[in-house]
Amino acid sequence: MTPGEHDEICAFVSHLPHILANVFLQTVCAVREDIARFGGPSFQDMTRVAGSSPSVWVDIFLTNKKLLQAAREFLQNFERFLSLLEEGRETEVLAFLQEMARLKERTGYGS
User: How far apart are CA 86 and CA 83, in angstroms?
Assistant: First the structure.
């Protein structure tokens, strides 16, 4: 594996999830700081890595240039999904969720 391949893979499967966890926690706690006590397992799963060492992660975030592209791709997909919700496109939302369920099952991700 080349250093570039390593950075690209880590950007998607490690570094982007850390950004998402931190921004998700920021977003939720801006609504109500004590909201975490209402969260269940999915909330805990989404925020677990937000407690990781800030000094380690700031270096990783600023060093891995592949991370910006990964974050942009995520943002495009997220915006596309939000558009489906805004437009009330139930069939497409259902198809997307079904496709992701099949992808998760096929790949074993998150098992």
Answer: 5
Q: Which residues are CB-contacts of 81 (< 8 A; sequence separation ≥ 6)? A: 93, 96
State how far the alpha carbon of 79 is from the alpha carbons of 64, 84, 92, 95, in Å. Answer: 24, 9, 14, 17
In angstroms, the CA 27 to CA 31 distance is 7
How far apart, in whole angstroms, are the C-alpha atoms of residue 49 and residue 57? 10
Helices 54-63 and 16-31, packing angle to 10 deg: 120
Which domains does the chain show, CATH number per domain? 3-107 (1.10.3660.10)
Q: What is the pLDDT along the chain (111 residues), one digit of tens a residue?
A: 999 999 999 999 999 999 999 999 999 999 988 888 899 999 999 999 998 999 999 999 999 999 999 999 999 999 999 999 999 999 999 999 999 999 999 998 766
